[in-house]
Amino acid sequence: MPLLTIATFLPILAGLALMALPDRSTKKAHTVSIAATGAVFLITLGIWARGIVAGDFAQVEEIAWIPAIGAAYRLGVDGLSLPLVLLTSLLFLLSALYSARIGERAASYVVLMLMLETASLGTFMALDGLLFYVFFEVSLVGMYFMIAGWGYEERQRAALMFFLYTLVGSLPLLLAIIGLYLGSGTFDMRVWVEGTTLGGLPAMLALIAMLVTFAVKIPAFPVHTWLPAAHVQAPTAGSVILAGVMLKFGTYGLMRFAYQMTPEAFAQAGQVILAFGVVSALYGAFAALAQSDLKKMIAYTSVNHMGYVVMGVAIAALATEPRIRTIALDGATLQMVSHGLVTGALFFLVGMLQDRAHTRGIGDFGGLLGRVPWLGWAFILSAFASLGLPGLAHFPAEFQIFLATLNGMPWGLIAILAIVVTAALYLRAIAGVFLGEMNDKWADMPDLDRREKLVVLPLLVLTVLIGVAPGWLIDMIHTTMTGLGN
Amino acid sequence: MEMGRDLALLAPELTLAAAAMLMIVAEMFRAARLVLAIGLAGLAAATLLTLPMLSVDATVFGGTYRIDLISGWAKLILLPGTALSLLLVRAEITGRPREGSVQSLVVLVTLGALMLSGAGDMMVVVIGVVLTGLGSFALVAWPRDDAATEAAMKYLVFGAVTGSVMIYGLTFWFGGTGSTLFSELGQLQGQTLVTIAGLIAIIVGLGYKGSLVPFHFWAPDAYQGAPVSIAAYLSVITKAAAFFAFAQVLRDLPRDGGWPLALAVIAAATMTYGYLAALVQTNLVRLIAYSSVAQSGYFLMGVVALGASGFAVPGILVFAAAYVAMNLGAFAVVLLAGRDLGDLEGFGRTRPWLGAAMVVFLLSLTGIPPLFGFVGKFYLLSAAVEAGYLWLAIIGVLNSVLALGVYLRLMVPMYRTSSTEHPSEVGAVLTQGTVVVTVLATLLIGLAAGILPGP
Q: Which of B397, B398, B450 is nearest residue A64 as measured by Cβ atoms?
């Protein structure tokens, strides 16, 4: 059974079916949404059960598309993409559950969400350059309409900024793809990832083009400015998908395209890329420290966490020892998954807080822990995970990245300073919102209801599980990364 | 024997010519419905007759007219495009005086467009330019009000001047090669001055048809003065034909004459100027007119790469097909929504399906995958890169961003809440039918790009 194809297109087909229904009531729309994303989640578990192979892509599905130019419909997974596929299907399922309270034009909202899921899964699983670009851009359009249609007050401007920024960002990738195609005569990414398609100046130009695209998407300093605006205005589920899934397009592209397809140029530019990673990590942490809006704060910590991923990939390119490379790549990939789980949980929780209070300012709250213990403890646990506490999801990832940095480019370790800053800002946020004097305004704030617990709990459980026993996930990642390290 | 073979190869063109004549006869009896029926039947028959001839590569009448990949696909693109235009014309001016004349002129202009697309000889290009030109002037002038008359006048003067320049310049090529056949242009190798003189002639004559900067001035006025359906028709059919003619002429010209660079500069100027001008328009028809000018710049990228990239000819053909579908569709929505930018206010909310279709057209015009417009642009960009014009491809890519700015100016107000009424109008069924056909083409042909010509 072509599970990859089914998983990719089931959401959009469900969306089209919903549009064709004569009765598109709110309830029906959300039922379709939860059923479809739930089914996709189960299918991706099936893909996981089938497993991956070392040194190649597994479960490849291929059909001719435009034979004249060597473009084909090609999907497949490996240890880099499969964890992200699982993360994607989980986050979309939880987002569907969370969004079930949305009443405003619910059918259109659901259709957009399902379209985004198709685009996201396709982006991670595509093994054809042209197909990848198609999914990559469709996700952009979907997110634009999501922010513009269901965001908060300033949504039009934020959506426009997001669209222009990321479209400008993604167009250089198109040129790089054309270059890779003209160099190889095919769009087959399995040929491209051998890393011998381009060399010399063309490879460097292609690398620069790809770095521009993925830096915007990651987002890395100094092209991160769209992120806070988009996050603040996006609806909660939009933020979760944006941070949890779509930022990974950038880091995934960095590894799959930039690192794998132009390895020599990447190694030459390694120091510069590392520097961008370090600066992003530090800048994101300090910028987050300066925020009083919870959502904006979490958005900036994404810049910080993604900076570590960039560092990891750069270290892998610079390192001479295969062992160090593998550790760096393992850490970078795990960091993507951890960030998706932890930041996803944080955005859900802030969204739930905002649903209750209609504000997100740290200064507006106080002493909520006694009033809403579920929400409070869930937030505290996620915040601790986000700042890199041992025993929680980010620790094994960041530990490996820093270990590799220490062995490869010790100067990069100044990024550790960012961990201190993140710790400070999270403690400040926890103290401001959940501890201290209780603000009477919130005296009758209800705690999480069953549906909300159902949304948050899986993320918390996985956060702890990956922190305590990351082996099951790292083994899968490692299968592929040992091959890339050599 | 020879004559018989030639006529058989010309069956689609002859069918269309016969249909046009019959349409005029029917118009004499003021039977507008019959005119339309003959036109549609003629177009359908000509399209079907083209299908078995797609793989033919031949010339007729001593090499003056080519039956090849370009002219074959040109027919498959232009004939259905014309049929859709006839439906739009019917929807817009049904029951008005001389409706049948408009329909017959449209088909005659398309016949001229086919001449251009298959031209193998300078004289055929001239006939094509004149045939498309004369019909178009009359079509623009049809409403008989001041705006239309002024627009048609400008169009006519512009056409007359550029046409004369073209004929004058072409005499240099005739002098240089001793033949009016394009296939002899290879002999110009080394005769730089003569090459340039003829080239300027072609750029002026066809550049005017294709509304390239700086020969585009007539376009916004003509589109605005003419009925919307005629603007839609002129913006796709005669323009696409101009680029098919470019492809026919320049593919035989030695590339060392420097013309690729000259055209590359014009291409860059055209797309940039077109989108910049579109950014400040408030009249929807003018806005789309300027955006069509910009799209001409993309067409020209393919022309620049002729002879240097296998993507050049397929790029022009695929982009033309996409462009006909998406631009006709966008104009059809304008026909339903109204001519002013303000008329789109809230359109997407009161008419969700038409609004969604408009979004598809606009995203496709921007070049967002997997829509049809993206496939065309992708081929054209690849052609430019492969021909060594990376800078032109980069400008093309950057202009996609400007394009997004232009088209978002239409999309954003469509989803604002507003009190503007969007009632269904007379003839709406035909227009909506056109929207359905074009939106399906824009959505699906991009996914099935394997059926299109490739390198």
A: B450
User: Of A66, A137, A148, which has the smallest distance from its Cβ to B368's Cβ?
Assistant: A137
Q: Computed over its alpha carbons, how large is the radius of gyration of chain B?
A: 21
Residue A38 placed within a domain = no
Q: How far apart are CA A372 and CA A448, in angstroms?
A: 7
* Closest by CA position to B139, among listed B119, B122, B123, B155: B155
Please identify among residues 173-192 of chain A the ones whose CB lies closer than 8 Å to any CB of chain B. Answer: 174-175, 178-179, 181-182
Tell me how far apart the alpha carbons of residues B187 and A372 are, in angstroms, rounded to a whole number. Answer: 87
B260 upstream amide cis, omega within 30 of 0: no
- Amino acid A281 reads A
CB-based contacts of A342: which residues, under 8 Å, 6+ apart? A382, A385, A386, A392, A393, A394, A459, A463
Please give the C-alpha separations between residue A474 and each of A83, A251, A309, B279, in angstroms, as whole numbers. Answer: 10, 17, 15, 51
Task: Tell me, yes or no, if A164 comes closer than 8 A to chain B by beta carbon.
Answer: yes
Going by C-alpha positions, the residue among A392, A355, A374 that lies closest to residue A434 is A374
What ipTM describes this predicted complex? 0.80
Q: For residue A248, tell me if it sits in a domain.
A: no
Domains contained in chain A, number: 1
pLDDT in tens, chain B (455 residues): 577 888 899 999 999 999 999 999 999 998 889 999 999 999 999 999 999 988 889 999 888 999 999 999 999 999 999 999 999 999 998 888 889 999 999 999 999 999 999 999 999 999 999 999 999 999 999 998 998 999 999 999 999 999 999 999 999 999 988 898 988 888 888 888 888 888 899 999 999 999 998 888 889 999 998 999 999 999 999 999 999 999 999 988 888 778 899 999 999 999 999 999 998 898 999 999 999 999 999 999 999 999 899 999 999 999 999 999 999 999 999 998 888 888 888 888 888 888 899 999 999 999 888 899 999 999 999 999 999 998 999 899 889 888 988 998 888 888 877 766 666 555 588 889 999 999 999 999 888 887 888 77
Q: State the smallest CA–CA distance between residue A68 and chain B in angstroms.
A: 5
**Domain enclosing residue A472, as ranges:** 269-486
Judged by CB atoms closer than 8 Å, whether chains meet at B450 and A67 is answered as yes
Radius of gyration of chain A (CA): 21
| Residue B181, φ and ψ in degrees, nearest 5 | -80, 135
Residue B29: CB atoms within 10 A of its CB come to: 10
Domain boundaries, given as residue ranges, for chain B: 258-455
Is there a contact between B369 and A179 if contact means CB atoms under 8 Å apart? Answer: no
Q: Which phi and psi angles does A122 have, rounded to 5°?
A: -60, -40
CA–CA separation, A475 and A48 (whole Å): 13
**Residue A42, in any domain of the structure:** no
